[in-house]
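Render this sequence as a predicted structure.
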Amino acid sequence: MRNCLFITFFCLIIAMIFIGCGISNKSLMEATPMVVVDGGAGLYNGNELIGNLPAGTEVTMLEKKDKWCLVEVKVDSHNMKVKGLMKPESLALCAEDSSINVVAPVVSPVYESRRQEVWANYFQKTGINAIAIDGEYVWVGTTNGLAKFPASAPERAVTYTINDGLLDNDVLSLDICDGEVWIGTAKGLNRFNGTSFVKYTCEDGLLEGAIMAIDAGEDYVWLGLDSGIARFDKTLGFIKNFPHSGGWSPESGSGSVSLADKGGIYADMIKAEDDFVWNAAFNLTRTSIDGRDLQVYGCGEGLIHSRVVDFKNDPDNMWVITLGGITKIDRNDNSKYENFYTRGGYTNNPVIASCFDDKYLWLVTNDGLSRFDTKKNKTTTYFACWDLFDGGYVSKMKADDKYLWIGTTNGLWRMDKYNAYKISDKDLLDDFESKSRVAYRGWHLGKNGGGNGSENTFVDYTIGANNTNASLCNKYIAPDYKAHSIGHISVSLADMDLTEYDGISFYIKAEPAVMVTASSYENSETWMIGSWHVPSKWMEVKVPFSQFKPHGQESGNNILELYALKNLSFSIKRDYAFGERPRPKEGETGKFWIDEIRFYKNSHSDVANLGK
């Protein structure tokens, strides 16, 4: 039996050799190391299956087309190589050739200790649907009832369920007014005075449907339902319903269902203001107190996307957060609006949840947790405080003076805003410890060119400055001596607010030694930051903005405008400090690393107002 199996396998190998010889081995691109992704993949000669390769098999890609790749597989046991065709989606770049190294930790050890100062987790394995702040206390609507606790001690929570008078343990919405808690469920409305619950259902005249949002005022309680909106008169106990069809429907292709269709969520946000009420889900609608739609805001009225995540009005502007970002609408002239898009757009980086505090707008997107300054129109993304919700989807956010509360499908998280700001990334361009930050910054990663003069920029998770775990590496094959430049690294600065800083710092090293020149571009002129001989050990570079020099060959005002700096570039060059023949040699392979790129602020600055 063993002999039969051996003969069969040997014949298969021989067949693979002959079949492989029938495939053109002409390489139309540089050979690229690849690996078979999870699930394995087939190796083909035309439409004929040669064999199946398990996940993790290393192959060399020789040629790539839209629908197939010509690869070479090494068969160690028989000391031979076999060529065949594979589907591109079944292959991934090997670690060093990928934009983000596949062995990167989900959470960098550099951040883990910091985050323990910032985050605390409660109500594990419980879904959080609603959050309300009442002075020093927090109320949360969960999938297991209504809970109340001191903001400083959530572990002392008191929970109310159907056994205490709740209509349903799955609490969908909450609001508090004059000491009374109003609770929305799929079965109706509860009113809680701290002692007992009162129930209002369709039997009491309430519109049938799930209560997704509540705004409790002095005279009325407005309800946003999946089936419309309703108004409860607190004095008379009378309910007035305004049913609507259509609304937000994530299952539909467009994200909405028409008014003629049933289903969808009509209003999962609601807020009364003077003689009208705002409600939103798909589009933002201003409705009169008698239920007439007065104005609708959607994509055609300036919003980035029609799915509204949150909104807030101040005396001058209306702030509307949608899947695609933030829209600021002038309340005195609706035709005047300004949009602030998420990086990557709503397809790749949608806004998942948001909330306002007294100063800022907080956002959760795929990139992470961000704080938007509505005065400066600038965003600070807290990458070091992200990737920690244990797989829970963010469902609701609320902020008080000290904490940011984030409800997920897997518990409640409390963030200390002061500690988070201390360790925030506001001054950090990149330390390459966070995969989400690297992607957000938009580093130009990957291979460029082939043979001598080629380069490959990737995140190296084996080495970092200051005993950290990662850095950015440019691996190159030096060109002939006619070429002075051997590599280039660049990144955008467009979304960073640099007006409060005094300079830039970073760490660099190289093997072999090279020269590196740093520059930055704003408006119509380039600013030279400096040039350095780069040693084989980490060297810190610190340059104040006052030492930036205009390039001198471009039109400009020779005034460094920090708010307008658009990018940061590093050009790697040969070092001529080694005599007649500079290093690196022609065809020599070398590496240049950079890490901990950040902007610093002096305690006593003589350039504090530069660029403002």
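Summary. Helices lie at 2-21, 109-116, 345-348, 417-422, 435-441. Residues 2-21 form the longest helix (20 residues).
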